[in-house]
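Researcher: We plan to redesign the surface later, but first we want a full-length starting point. Tokens attached.
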């Protein structure tokens, strides 16, 4: 396997006529409140479109211990409200057994529950999401400016 590197892209030659492209990009998200879901689907699609990959996968990663990323419904804002309410119910902000001195243990637990990455197939240069799905950045300890890392791999 032969690798060719440029500042923005890495290509792997698997066979004489097949190249796997890989491009990693970051962008920032400003969150408005302690708990929020921010739709980042358009930003992720822009990265995919700029990568030259038409068939493959994109991984969205959040390098924060009190935030996450998930895929969920984008059509009805009540869904996001209900998910945040359920997380608050399952993991209350204040608990007598929390020992972390920063006072944001609930945010760390929610981040672990939701996860810090998700992967979406790419077909025809587009994210392969369901009709009502979006990619959401999940804030659990805001407001803050956060970083999102997007890696696209494929042909």
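Model: Full-length starting sequence:
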């Amino acid at each position: 396997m032969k690798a060719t590197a440029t500042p923005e892209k890495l290509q792997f030659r698997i066979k004489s006529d097949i190249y796997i492209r890989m491009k990693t990009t970051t962008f920032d998200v400003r969150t408005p409140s302690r708990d929020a879901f921010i739709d980042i689907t358009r930003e992720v699609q822009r990265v995919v479109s700029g990568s030259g990959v038409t068939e493959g996968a994109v991984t969205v990663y959040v390098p924060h211990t009190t935030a996450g990323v998930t895929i969920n419904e984008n059509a009805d804002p009540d869904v996001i409200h209900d998910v945040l309410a359920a997380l608050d119910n399952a993991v209350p902000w204040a608990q007598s057994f929390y020992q972390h001195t920063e006072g944001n243990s609930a945010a760390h637990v929610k981040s672990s529950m939701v996860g810090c990455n998700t992967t979406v197939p790419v077909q025809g240069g587009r994210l392969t999401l369901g009709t009502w799905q979006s990619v959401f950045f999940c804030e659990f300890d805001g407001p803050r400016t956060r970083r999102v890392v997007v890696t696209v791999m494929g042909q």
